[in-house]
Amino acid sequence: MQLSFRWYGDTDPVTLDKIKQIPDMKNIVSAIYDVPVGEVWPKERINSLKASIEKEGLSLAVIESLPVHESIKLGEADRDDYIANYKESLKNLAEAGIKTVCYNFMPVFDWTRTDLEHELEDGSTALLYDHDFIQKIDPVTTNLNLPGWDESYTKEEMAALIEKYRHISEEDLWENLGYFLNEVLPIAIEHDVDLTIHPDDPPWSLFGIPRIIKGRESYQRLLSINNAKNNGICFCTGSLGCLEENDLPALIREFGDHIHFVHMRNIKRLDNHSFVETSHLSKEGSIDMKEVARALKDINYQKTIRPDHGRMIWGETGKAGYGLFDRALGATYINGLFEGVE
Ligand code: DNO
Question: What does the UniProt record say this protein does (predicted)?
């Protein structure tokens, strides 16, 4: 496996010169953050992102994410324009030598948590998801600063968007995902780029809006759209692990040919669908990380893994889930797990 680290570009307080001091860290996962969703990523921007990473002796291994415009997820009349732009961005990325591109098909809200600074017993802070709270609130009127939300929407725009999704079923969303993949996969295949879909986080419907990438049945259906290896999976242990029924090692063994990117982190499942993010260690959460590593070793996984969210420790402040220290500890733990299982 190739260890990697997410870097949010020049404004990220976690700088490349620090990242490269993490043992065995050579690959960067990044994206272009200031091109509005749906527009083409220009070649020059991709090349300059790549150059800034290479200047530090690291390599840009994965794009996370090339986001999918809501018109595509909603199946609206102008989706073809956005799909054409998506294809163009994919080609530009392929020409720059990028082989793995991550995306998600979560309507409106990407990853959702209710508390970004939940204090753990040891004084560190972590991300928490309280399901009862989510069920009680209206996402438009509640002033929540959730990490995965597209902040470019006004409240009115968000309300209108949510209203549209309330008329969309899971079936409709699957149909729209199929339409999108049937269009973009030929380009990915032609340029040998692996598209990897991130699971819904958490993997269930929120605010009456459908979500479809949740576990085994979702992956079977995804691959029934197209079984090319380029129709890939970003295997996120923390997202899939929110559902106890998801047997992570079994999923890895079953869908391994399509797994081209892995996010490793641990969560502790609490009552009634709530969960808290813990350190990466197996014994601190609900996920047996060693068995995940063993399954990846069994399928001879050679691609990229990144330590996912960390807690905030040692007084660090910064982007929720994406500080340096605890993710670096996670990276070192992952290295140890693989050294052990190999
Ligand atoms: C959160 C991330 C997600 C992920 C996207 C992929 O920490 O795992 O925001 O990047 O869902 O498209």
Answer: Catalyzes the dehydration of D-mannonate.
